[in-house]
Amino acid sequence: MLREKLCKLTQMGTLHDYIDAFQDILIQCPMPISALEIRFFFQQGLRKETNNHLSEHHPATLEETIQLALRFDHGLQRPAQASSDWEKTFHLPPMQGCGPYRTELSNQ
């Protein structure tokens, strides 16, 4: 019965919510489930792009699977933030010795 719940569980909201729901089901499980089965059920319920990413990287444990999924998910949520951070930290040095700018010529 709990294996069916694990099999039917899918990520509908945030990854954190999915992880919590998955772990809640695991806690209720009276019979042991192999680590391979647990990783399989966890990965199958994830969104397609996250599942595909995990398939490419072959994490060895459930913990690695969760960490890799979280890193990937956080990367999807912040592409604009990364660009903004880059713009804040990358500064071009002032151009010296390159001649006058057009506005400087018109003021002379």
Question: What can you tell me about this protein's structure?
Answer:
This protein is mostly helical and 108 residues long. The protein has one domain: Orthogonal Bundle (Non-ribosomal Peptide Synthetase Peptidyl Carrier Protein, Chain A), CATH 1.10.1200. It has seven helices and no strands. Helix 4 (48-57) crosses helix 5. It is globular, with a radius of gyration of 24 Å.
Radius of gyration: 24 Å
User: What string gives the helices and strands in order?
Assistant: HHHHHHH
Any idea what the CATH architecture is?
A: Orthogonal Bundle
Query: Which descriptor suits the 3D outline?
Result: globular
Distance between the termini: 85 Å
Average pLDDT reading: 80
CATH class: Mainly Alpha
Number of domains: 1
The name of the CATH topology is Non-ribosomal Peptide Synthetase Peptidyl Carrier Protein, Chain A
Return residue spans where pLDDT drops below 50 for at least 5 consecutive residues. 80-84, 89-106
- Distinct helical segment count: 7
Q: What amount of the residues lies in strands?
A: under 5%
Kindly name the structural category.
mainly alpha
Number of strands: 0
For the sheet with most strands, the description reads: none
Q: How helical, in percent, are the residues?
A: 55-70%
Protein name: Retrotransposon gag domain-containing protein
